[in-house]
Amino acid sequence: MPRLAISPEFLRGLGALTRPVRQDVAVAMRRFLLNASAAPHPEKVRNSRDPRVATLRLADRHRGVVVRQDDVYWLLTVLPDAEAWSYAQRYRFGVNTAIGIVETWDAEALERIEPALRRASASGGRPLFENWCDADLLNIGVDAHLLPLLRLMTSESHLAAVEPLLPYSQYAPLAALARGDSLAAAWRELDACRSRAADEIDPEDLLAALRRSPDRAVFVADAAELERVLTLPGWCTFLYPPQHTYANWPAYEQPVLITGGAGTGKTVIALHRAALLARAATGPVLLVTFSQSLATELSARLDMIIDDEVVRKRVEVGNVDRLAHRIVAEAEGRAPALVSSDDLSELWQEAAAGRFGSAFLLREWEQVILAQDLRTLEEYQAARRPGRGVRLDPEARTLVWEAVQHVVRRLRESGRRTLLQLASEAAGLLGRAVGDLLGDEAPGREPYRHIVVDEAQDLHPAQWRLLRAAVPVAPNDLFIVGDPHQRMFDTRVALTDLGIPARHFRLKISHRLPAEILSWGVRLRGGGPADGLVAGNAAMYGYRALDNGLRPMVRGYVDAEAEIAGLVSTVAEWLEEGVPTAQIAVAARTSDLVRTARTALREAGITVKVTSLHGMKGLEFRRVAVIGVADGIVPAPDALTPADEDPTARAHDLQRERGLLYVACTRAGEVLYVSYSGRASPFIPA
């Protein structure tokens, strides 16, 4: 019986076909797996650059391209007949001799580029790789066929010209050497391209290489597995090497923090890590995120990964607020009452003295007093106030403390609390040593053995104390993913300051964003360092995309009516191009703009997701339109602290608004459309 391995490129090609053709391809693949009489049979390719390449007729005028070794067929793509034959002739396939993963080479294009490189080298210049002998290059996995081309290169631009033609596992270490880095640095780049270590590497054993390359192939043994692979999104099946490594590492001896920019796959890692821990059956798992809407999305995505009902029940998915609410409710025997934002605002207005405004007092309470769990005036007098720009002498701190206590008293009298108060109280309930929480003597506690945290950058210190208290200190206790640059709220705390000494790993490659959207987004965000999660500042240096695409479309309109008309026209064009409605989103900063856009699109017969910038958090789409990015709307004036009240807080507010826009814009994996009427927001890159 033949065995089948499927590449992610095949699934992308299959998705681009019409529905009848897709159905015919699926039927043909099932027949092939079963070795049925009507199954497609391999056909040799003339003039192929790899003798193992063949084609399979999978539908009318459509062929799959496969690489065959023994009874295993690696299905690479499905294309119309002529394109399939051309593809089959163009590429060759090999095994990286240093790390044992499979590599795909655009052999035809490399042959065409050689004369140009030879002419360039004849004009003089020092050879780019003159400091490294052939043995050095072969030792870092460079393919022997590539060595003659490398010896022709005299500048980094020559290497950049062939980058699209090389496997990334070839280009990455060579780029390090071209920058002047050491062989050790080149090895680090290469090491990031593998998911697991290889004891012995046979350059001819393509099957073993495929098993070491979870981002390039998934094996299907029967029709049920085939159906699952064909119907699930690619992220359920294919993980890039760092994603696979971090998600599937057997045991971490201490908490783990993984940071990375938009599109690097942090949420995918969190989901697969939760699934791995659930399958291990070592105890209950909590997958937690910032908001309930994100928790609902994570739960649905986890259902796709875990098809075993028993395993799935081992993972609870929720947000920190619900966790705190449940702990307090169980301890008190009734559901706690929450104060509304309007009522809370009135209380702070009531407490505000002439020297301090209500917004200042609220931030001081949340960012200093609740953040550090300060219980007395003496503790507050001695506390540091990181991130707060206005210095307070002892007399001023006394005034602030009295104002805060007034609000706390009024809340207590009315029997109401804020969500952060609930988190703080829940942490206190679980604050004793939690090693016994897995036992029967602690009914009503949260007996989690593992906690996986997504969108960690927006959690408040009180919420972190709750999570730390909800899981025993043990291997695989806390697994955390986040990005300080995507922070939507002013929570700036290093995990080490909260008693969570996390081992830090950083993702550098965005697999969702094309380079054009990524670079535009980085300029929009400011590109500078951001604090939070890790000690010091986290920089965006080294964050990059591997694919190219379209530059963001920035459109200015004379008035709001024209801007909405432009939005409707643009989304209609996307739908005419065949983009599914579920892959289109529209976002705006204000609720009025959201309602206006939704109404206009609905009147045009268009139903796509329309939400606030906050509502885009954690989601991804092929095409995104962000409207109303005008001066006076973005940044939102009422979200900014007056400069004369606290200049540092205002600077943080501006960065938070930048981050909010950055998050919404980087949800687009294919096309980003940004519009404004009147004067553009100062955040839009020039």
Automatic annotation (TrEMBL):
ATP binds at residues 260-267. PROSITE patterns: UVRD_HELICASE_ATP_BIND. Its EC number is 5.6.2.4. Gene3D superfamilies: P-loop containing nucleotide triphosphate hydrolases (3.40.50.300). It catalyses: Couples ATP hydrolysis with the unwinding of duplex DNA by translocating in the 3'-5' direction; ATP + H2O = ADP + phosphate + H(+). It is an enzyme of class 5 (isomerase). It comes from the Bacteria. Keywords: ATP-binding, Helicase, Hydrolase, Isomerase, Nucleotide-binding. Pfam families: UvrD-helicase, UvrD_C. InterPro entries: DNA_helicase_UvrD-like_C, DNA_helicase_UvrD/REP, P-loop_NTPase, UvrD-like_ATP-bd. Residues 239-525 form the UvrD-like helicase ATP-binding domain. PANTHER family: DNA 3'-5' HELICASE, UVRD / RECB / PCRA DNA HELICASE FAMILY MEMBER. This is DNA 3'-5' helicase. It comes from Microbispora hainanensis.
